[in-house]
Amino acid sequence: MTITDETGVSDQIYRDRATALANMLTLRPERHVQSTFGSVEPENECGTVACVAGWAALAQSGRVMIASDGVMTWAELRSVVELSGSGMNFVPTLYDPNITAWAQVAGRVWLGLTEESADALFFTMRNAVAVEILRRLGDGRLSRDFTYADRDNVRTEVLGDLGDEDEDEE
Predict the structure, then answer these.
(1) pLDDT at site 60
(2) CA distance linking residue 33 with residue 127, whole number of Å
(3) Quick one: how far is CA 134 from the chain centroid?
(4) Residue 11 in contact with residue 17, Cβ under 8 Å?
(5) In whole angstroms, what is the distance from residue 64 CA to residue 60 CA?
(6) How far apart are the C-alpha atoms of 97 and 87, rounded to whole Å?
(7) Is residue 6 part of a domain?
(8) Which of 48, 65, 106, 108 is the most exposed place for a label (fewest CB within 10 A)?
(9) Cα-trace Rg, the chain
(10) What is the pLDDT of residues 19-66, one digit of tens each?
(11) Is residue 140 in some structural domain?
């Protein structure tokens, strides 16, 4: 029996998405910056970096396809990167003050998370902790309604003694 949520998406699909995103962020760590929902960095070929919420939101919008092995492809490169060279064009644009709200909601929907679990994941500033949470969501060690306390336990396991300190960017 397949269990689905109110949107008709099965738990296995959400688990597969979490695993695929973790694989992509592990395969392409230069594209993972947990401190931004999306920005342009000249160090990589198209200049796009984002946090878990940003990449999940792009996947939800259909702009990015993330395969189970972590290989990412742009669905519509021209619509993602502005031709003027002034930066990445999310829906809405990066320069729109609503980008944070859009990425949070779209990312939460794509991963099938509760509002609390989405906040706990998306506002984790350590890349390694965010990827480990995705891995645990993918293999079922963490439920899609995990709490801040669950997130803090993962952080402590990943970072050791550093897990109790305030989070700084990696």
Answers:
(1) 79
(2) 7
(3) 8
(4) no
(5) 8
(6) 15
(7) no
(8) 65
(9) 15
(10) 999 998 898 888 888 887 766 554 444 556 778 888 888 787 776 777
(11) yes
What b/e readout covers 79-90, taking b as 16+ CB neighbours within 10 angstroms?
A: ebbeeeeebbbb
Domain that holds residue 27: 11-158
Specify whether the CB–CB gap between 170 and 34 falls below 8 A.
yes
68 is written with which tokens? 């189970």
Q: Which residue has the higher pLDDT, 165 or 115?
A: 115
Structure token pair of residue 21: 């995103």
* Angle, CA of 57, 116 and 165, to the nearest 5°: 100
Q: Please count the structural domains in the chain.
A: 1
Query: For 144-158, how does the pLDDT look when each residue is reduced to its tens digit (9 = 90+)?
Result: 999 999 999 999 999
Instruction: Output the CA torsion 83→84→89→94 (10° steps).
Output: 170
Asked if the structure places residue 168 within a domain, the reply is no
Name the pLDDT band for 3 (thresholds 50, 70, 90).
low
Domain assignment of residue 4, yes or no = no
Contact 134, 158 (CB under 8 A): no
